[in-house]
Amino acid sequence: MYVATLHPLNTKVTGLETTGEARFSINGDTLTIDVSAEKLPPDMMHLQHFHGFKDNGDATCPTETADVNHDGIIDLIETEPTSGTTMVPFHDDPVSMEIVRDTYPKASADGTFQYKKTVSLKDLDAAFAKAFGNKDLDLDRRVVFIHGILASTELPASAASLGTIPAQVTLPIACGEIKRVQQ
Ligand SMILES: [Cu+2]
Q1: CATH architecture, domain 2-180
Q2: Measured in angstroms, how far is the CA atom of residue 35 from the centroid of ligand 1?
């Protein structure tokens, strides 16, 4: 069993103290991913993934110092030095490894969501190895991010994102380091 306690990020932008917990339970060949979160920007879909380093360095959550352009925002690109890159998505089909997909969890009107997905660990390991060349997920060296603020939220042009995806979609709003725990 692995657990990440999710702490808020970019609270000045969201006006919210987004928190949550991600749990990873391994039972034989199955991996069950549970994420619960609250105080999210409501009524919208939130991207969520684990991020990490291809070379298996230890990913950590960004702090205020990650805001290297001093625009008051820790954008997705600014998380890369501490947290690595986007690795495995938590939507309807994590094994697909597709990052752009419209089946991530949607926060309810009260700003919460519950996500639960069980996948074949063998299939996920194989997809992960194909994408990143690692044979093991190495969960305890990864971090979980929840992303996304309301599309109507104004951001400075300096808030960077991936490709053509609006920065509102990828802005990190919660992060947690995954730790191994005894069952
Ligand atoms: Cu992510």
Answers
A1: Sandwich (2.60)
A2: 13
